[in-house]
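Worked example 2:
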Amino acid sequence: MQERLQKLIAQAGVASRRAAEDLIRNGEVTINGKIVTELGTKADPENDHIKVRGKLINPRLTGTREYTYILLNKPKGYLSTVTDPEGRPTVTQLVKGNGRLFPVGRLDFNTEGLIILTNDGDFAHFVASSRQIPKVYEVKVKGIPNDNAINKLRRGIRLDDGFKTAPADITPLKSTEKNGWFQVTLKEGHNQQIRKMFDSVGNSVVKLRRVAIGPIKDEHLKVGAYRKLSHAEVEKIRSAMKEKVRSQKLK
């Protein structure tokens, strides 16, 4: 059966769908010896020879594949990517020995907290992009934003880069005289969104950490440490994936 090329690359555990799209655009993917650069291209791993950077990925698609799901408490100073051309440290270096994994979504360089790494492309795409999997953050900001500012962020604002944020759940936590603390829940992901949101009301982010990814959380996981997701945690995500498919079929 034919599938979109970026989906097949992700299913093979080569890269996330977003990274797979970059590979296609850069001419690093071939089908039956021909370079493919169009994102809408489809292929059938049963009949087409699919190569990424010269390596055939068909065996990873047609055979039985064992998936790995890792929960990492990312420290500051690590990139949420597989490799970095500038040689900066990446999250994959913290989970060596677990096979070829890629991060699900992104936490920026100076943000810490929970991030999933896996070789399951469909799982990764759903967690990263679905509104059914909200991400929860604890945010420390400079100064104390007033109620009007927080309500403005709750309703959604247009950022300086033109992006219009969706309504967000924002709950005040215990603050100090100089710094406000908040719990922020987002159902979308935009580059450095929370930092840009608070910048827009004049209260820059001092510290940011993600504490939950949908139903997955672990307050005892130390910074820099990781563990495998439990079967129950994986099934919670898979149940949400199946529910989404059922709802789409009913439309």
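The first helix runs from residue 5 to 11. The chain has seven helices and 15 strands.
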